[in-house]
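Reviewer comment 2.1 asked that we show a complete input and output for one of the modelled complexes. We chose the flavin mononucleotide case, as it is the one discussed in the main text.
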Amino acid sequence: MRILAISGSLRRDSHNSALLRAAADLLPPGVELTVHADLKAISPFDEDDLHQLPVAVQRLRDEVDAADAVLISTPEYNHSIPGQLKNALDWLSRPLIESPLRNKPTAVIGASTGMFGAVWAQAEARKVLAAIGARVLDREVAVPSADEQFHPHGHLNDSELEQEIVEVLKALAEAVARRHPVAVPAGGQAAEEPVRSG
Ligand SMILES: Cc1cc2nc3c(=O)[nH]c(=O)nc-3n(C[C@H](O)[C@H](O)[C@H](O)COP(=O)(O)O)c2cc1C
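Response of the prediction step:
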C-alpha cells in the first residue's frame, strides 16, 4: 500500500515536512510513504488551464492517482491552511467527478509553533477534502510548539504523539483495505479484487 504525503509548508526547515519524515519511520508493515517534492512549483489555479494542465499540476495529480491513500501535514496560517496547499487542492478538485482525491482515504495531521498544533488548519483541510469527495479520516494529530518537538535526527521526542501518528497510519491502512477488500476463494490463496472507484 502506498501513501502519498503532502506537506503544506514550502519552507526548507518545515516542521510539517519533518512530521511527515517522522511518520515515514512509523509505518505499519507493507505500507510505503513518499513525500510530494514540489508543491512550490504548482501555479495559481486557473480554470482556463484545466484543458491543458501545467506539468507540475499533472505530476501531483498522477502521484495522488497512483497512491492508495493521502496524508497531509498542514501548518496553520492565520487559523487556516496555507494558500499554496489550498491552491493545490483546488487543482486536484477539478473536474470534480474525475478528482484523484475522490473516495481516496485521506488523513490530516499538523504542526505549528503555537500552542494548539494547527487544529484549525487541520479542520479546514478536512472540510476542503470532504468537499472534494475524499474519504477523510475524522482524526487529527496536533503537534504544538513544533520547534521543540523534534530530535536533531528527526524523531519526535514525544512518544504519545508518535503513538497518535501510528494510529492514524493504521486507520488509513484500514480505510484502504476496506476500499480494496481481499477476496479469499474457498480453499485458495487470497487475491486482491480489482480496484473499485466507489
Ligand atoms: C503567515 C503566518 C501565519 C501564521 N499563523 C499561525 C496561526 O494562526 N496559528 C499558529 O499556531 N501558528 C501560526 N503561524 C506559525 C506557524 O505555525 C509556524 O510558522 C510553523 O512553523 C509553520 O509550519 P512549518 O514549520 O511547517 O513551515 C503562522 C506563521 C505564518 C508565517
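The chain is about 35% helix and 15% strand. We note this here for comparison with the apo prediction described in Section 3.2.
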